Amino acid sequence: MTVAAFMELALYEPDVGYYARAAQRSGRAGDFFTSVDVGPIFGELLARQVIEMAGLVESSVISHQSSVEPRGPRREPRFDLVEAGAGNGRLSADILRAVRRRDAAMYERLRLHLVEASAAARAAQRDVLGEVADRLVDSSADLPSFEGVLIANELLDALPVHQVVMRADGLREVYVEARRLKTGDWRLMTTEGALSTPALAEYLGRLNVTLEPGWRAEINLRAVEWMRSAARRLQRGFLIVIDYGHPAYELYSPTHSAGTLTTFAGHTMAGGERPSDAPAWLEDAGDRDITAHVDFSSVQAAAMDEGLTPLGFLDQTYFVMGLATGLDSPDLKTRLALKTLMLPGGLGSSHKVLILGKEMGSPSLTGCAYRVRVT
């Protein structure tokens, strides 16, 4: 099977998948640490951006109605907040509590949609939302049609990827197979073969990428498909995608010539010397996270093909700095949390923020007010 098919089973198969079997995988008791685990300040910062975007969406709707139906009835403002890859809803809960404090009227207009593949996580969402669960309209595995803001925080890096390797005779794909050892035991190993789909070579061709012999790379066709789907379902408003990754020119370069596919368990990235046909991400399938860096160039290009306008691509450091300006004097705990979110070499520079708009023009956004730069 392809690496993408293996990841689909290992991560999302209902009975055995890593994400499917638990409501939450991150945090101190989990296998990895996200910006949400830093504390509610991440949600509060995003709430500031959501409130600003809500005002822009509603102004755009009113302007459109006035031009199309200058004397017709005005429909009530509608604002959808969609979180894709929502898990048990912790981030949305933090955002909603901050919105309620800052703008009670907007809170009452807000309609929350949670998108999550794991049934276990969906089952936990109302309890996690607690007193702000009154804003929840629906929770499912599918994106809704919406008018407002969609947030995808660390979703795309966990989508199944194909892995390819360049050989002297051309591009080959990496496959996973069960192989019987001399001891009689079975072990998952990798092998190489012809490409499973011409879309892989076409993907690299669109980027004008040429891999050198021996280079490995991941190709995330699913991330491109997801972005196209999200763009089509967005009627008017914004997308905020936060993840670790790079522009294509950096991702497919000597710096990452061994590929970026890796696995985490107990806050430890698997490593060490291993046979090339038995990488660490094959071990303990269903009990470990598997992830690869995001190609933001292809994700953005897919969005633009669907009519979205890029409004910002920047390090999380600068996004946080823009939103943190004007915050009430933070206490020590909050200052430490902000430092963690902006830490160079950590969440601050490894995580990138891509902001896109539809039918919104080119507004100046608070999250892009400090600096629009990637490192």
Give an overview in words.
By secondary structure, the protein is an alpha/beta fold. It has a domain at 19-158 and 221-254 and 291-368: Rossmann fold (3-Layer(aba) Sandwich). The protein has 12 helices and 15 strands. The strands form 3 sheets. Strands 1, 2, 3, 4, 9, 13, 14 and 15 form an 8-stranded mixed sheet that branches. The chain has a 4-stranded antiparallel sheet with strand order 7-6-5-8. Helix 5 links the parallel strand 2 and strand 3. Helix 7 packs parallel to helix 9 (296-305). The radius of gyration is 21 Å and the shape is globular. The protein starts with a helix and ends in a 17-residue tail after the last strand.
Provide a concise account of the structure shown.
The protein is an alpha/beta fold and 375 residues long. It has a domain at 19-158 and 221-254 and 291-368: Rossmann fold (3-Layer(aba) Sandwich), CATH 3.40.50. It is 34% helix and 25% strand.
Outline the secondary-structure elements:
Elements: H1 3-12, H2 41-68, E1 79-84, H3 90-102, H4 104-109, E2 110-115, H5 119-129, E3 136-140, E4 146-153, E5 162-167, E6 170-180, E7 186-193, H6 199-206, E8 216-219, H7 221-233, E9 234-246, H8 248-251, E10 262-265, E11 268-269, E12 289-291, E13 294-295, H9 296-305, E14 309-315, H10 316-324, H11 332-342, H12 347-350, E15 351-358
Parallel strand pairs: 1-2, 1-4, 2-3, 4-9, 9-13
Antiparallel strand pairs: 5-6, 5-8, 6-7, 9-15, 10-11, 10-12, 14-15
